[in-house]
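Structure tokens please, single chain.
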Amino acid sequence: MQFGIFSVGDVTPDPTTGRTPSERERIKAMVAIALKAEEVGLDVFATGEHHNPPFVPSSPTTMLGYIAAQTERLILSTSTTLITTNDPVKIAEDFAMLQHLADGRVDLMMGRGNTGPVYPWFGQDIREGINLAIENYALLRRLWREDVVNWEGKFRTPLQGFTSTPRPLDGVAPFVWHGSIRSPEIAEQAAYYGDGFFHNNIFWPADHTKRMVELYRARYAHYGHGTAEQAIVGLGGQVFMRRNSQDAVKEFRPYFDVAPVYGHGPSLEDFTDQTPLTVGSPEQVIEKTLKFREYAGDYQRQLFLLDHAGLPLKTVLEQIDLLGEEVVPVLRKEFAAGRPAAVPEAPTHASLLAAEQNKEVVA
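Here you go.
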């Protein structure tokens, strides 16, 4: 399994001090978080994509390229690449370029985002969101897999004899996860292509996540990519830790209560009871995260949200230390125990390249 961190890149006042970091401070903090993730032995850092305040990561490949130059092992990903409002040609070019710069340590997560106004900002209609996701991704796949593309669709100008440059590293496209919280059409899309499905379940109860993942697994098998247990699944998670659970609750409560996404809603206790949010000791994080397998099956990637709601960088780095030193080593061991041999590991550039080479040998 792969373990890592995803960031939404919000710029939020610290409710305990009233101080709001500058955009520069927040961007630099995200870089520091990625570097710390590699330092403590995590596998993945993923950034969101937003084009509105209070968020800063409007150019994920710029940030990931900068991080690539300072890391050696970390897989660089997105926790949303907006397939609906980005041009598929630009996505193809940007991520192929990043592949080369990062020596293949790149994948990405396609999504529609959760900000309605982004559609008209980029000349699109939110009512066409699902159709945009389907058409744009179909074109993106061709741009990565065909040297010369002739194409015509509904949402962009036609392409005649077009070649996207640079070509993907080693002729292998970046692995794609399709991220969705509530849209079965996206689970279906991921299954159709044999891609990964990432359910960012940080705001949802287990029964909802279970239904979405089971749908994807069933359709993955239906399309002949393998058995349902061989489907590629990723999950989100959200934690705040201190060695003493009462200290964790006391420290995190003011951040939770005013968080932009769920502040002023359910109590911290209700939210932790009803969703994957864990606020407590490292042992409690381990216990709750291991239960994800009960409703999602054996899966390939677990990403945690740590840096949001105004939490200071120092605190976030402390969280990453606990994650890397005390939580993830246990999770790796426990998730590996009893894992069926048929369940694949998380795809990497190396494994995708080997699979392509095997196809050529067989052919």
